[in-house]
Specification:
The protein has helices at residues 4-13, 27-38, 50-57, 76-87, 94-100, 104-113, 128-139, 180-198, 218-233, 245-249, 251-257, 275-288, 314-332; strands spanning 18-21, 43-47, 65-68, 119-122, 149-155, 166-170, 204-207, 239-243, 269-271, 292-299, 305-307. By secondary structure, the protein is an alpha/beta fold. It has 2 domains: 4-140 and 302-332, Rossmann fold (3-Layer(aba) Sandwich), CATH 3.40.50; 149-288, Rossmann fold. The strands form 2 sheets. The chain has a 6-stranded mixed sheet with strand order 8-7-9-6-5-10, sandwiched between helices. Strands 3-2-1-4-11 form a 5-stranded parallel sheet, with helices on both faces. Helix 1 packs across helix 13 (314-332) and helix 4 (76-87) packs across helix 5 (94-100). The longest helix is centred in the middle third of the chain and has 19 residues, at 180-198. It starts with a helix and ends with a helix. The structure holds coenzyme A (COA). Coenzyme A (COA) binds next to helix 7.
Length: 333
């Protein structure tokens, strides 16, 4: 099976999308911009001062990227006004708005909001919280999503489970303590995301330390309630719970612990009860199972704003750019 990212990059090459990279004081951003434009994955906008970017870039070929300086950009005042209108109910002044728009990350997110770009990738320099907050404040959730969340695509080598060893893990990056309603909504949107990115039928497991009532506690009851709600909200979705991981992915265990389940033994989408579980699980898969982990990728936002790990490589940034292009195209449909 071609690597997940190779397929996504091929799809991105046909889409002609424009992605903003605001963290231009980091060489990985510039290397990613050079690679993404050279490979025809996306048009790239770099936010910053041309002289500083070119100095840091050295011999890198950035001729395929557009550099925009917030101080001199012709739409600068339009963006300040738009940000003021979006946030005035929070008590900000026009002066505050002008100050915020000097921040490359906020400015880049506003470019996406104003349809001057299709998506943004950051997080090589900023923490996850600092990367996600402007997206939540400016872009907000999509009309068909109750909540924004973050997931990882996990590809485990030589693995017979899931979708040829590929899984979606959510929430593994944003929502710390999801409510029953949040869990149900994350399950439904994760299924759509899996279909979009992995192009296989999603089978969603609502994970727990208990299977079909083998243990009983407020924790298990929460997952049971979320499963019931997800089934009510999306009657056609293959979703089941509460399931332990072995029952979710191993056919013989699934058949024994929950016979007749439409998901047990074949799950490829994992919904974790909280961010501790989701984040720990993805890192265990990555380190112990030597899985490829792509993310955190956001879902449920009106437009794609994607976070990176601060330990990311330039290739990770190119991958997030490609994923953002595919997400942006899906939003238009
Ligand atoms: N979906 C949609 N909107 C959300 C949201 C979500 N999951 N979480 C917060 N918001 C909205 C709030 O309603 C608020 O809107 P408003 O300002 O228009 O009223 C806005 O986003 C900011 O929310 P706030 O509560 O001030 O931000 P926060 O400090 O809680 O930050 C996160 C939100 C996502 C940054 C926070 O949940 C977080 O830090 N998550 C963990 C991220 C992380 O560290 N991941 C590491 C693992 S990779």
């Amino acid at each position: 099976m071609a690597k997940f990212l190779d397929k996504i990059s091929e799809r991105a090459q046909k889409l002609n999308k424009t992605i903003v990279l605001p963290e231009t004081d980091d060489i990985r951003t510039l290397q990613a911009a050079a690679k993404a434009t050279e490979r025809g994955i996306a048009k790239i906008i770099l936010i910053g001062k041309e002289a500083e970017i070119k100095e840091l870039a050295g011999d890198l070929d950035l001729s395929g990227a557009t550099i925009i300086d917030p101080e001199t950009y012709e739409k600068k005042d339009e963006y300040v006004n738009a940000f003021y209108e979006l946030r005035k109910h929070k008590g900000i002044s026009m002066e505050n708005a002008a100050e915020v728009m000097k921040d490359y990350l906020y400015f880049g997110v506003m470019m996406v909001k104003q349809d001057d770009a299709d998506g943004l990738v950051a997080g090589a320099v900023h923490s996850s919280s600092d990367t996600l907050r402007p997206a939540l404040q400016i872009i907000k959730t999509a009309p068909d999503a109750a909540i924004a969340s973050a997931f990882f695509i996990i590809s485990v080598p030589d693995c017979e489970y899931g979708s040829d060893g590929t899984f979606l893990y959510a929430d593994s990056g944003m929502v710390e303590m999801p409510s029953v309603e949040d869990l149900a909504n994350i399950a439904i949107i994760s299924a759509d995301t899996f279909k979009l990115l992995v192009q296989d039928e999603p089978k969603v497991a609502m994970l727990s330390y208990s299977t079909y009532g083998s243990a009983k506690s407020p924790l298990t009851e929460k997952t049971i309630a979320a499963t019931k709600l997800a089934k009510e909200l999306a009657p056609d979705l293959l979703v089941d719970g509460e399931l332990q991981v072995d029952a979710a992915i191993v056919p013989s265990v699934g058949a024994k612990k929950c016979p007749g389940s439409p998901v047990a033994g074949k799950a490829n989408v994992f919904i974790f009860p909280d961010l501790n579980c989701g984040n720990i699980a993805y890192k265990i898969s990555q380190r112990l199972a030597k899985a490829e982990a792509y993310g955190p990728i956001t879902q449920g936002l009106a437009k794609p704003i994607n976070d990176l790990s601060r330990g990311c490589s330039d290739e990770d940034i190119v991958g997030a750019v490609a994923i953002s292009c595919v997400q942006a195209a899906a939003k238009e449909q």
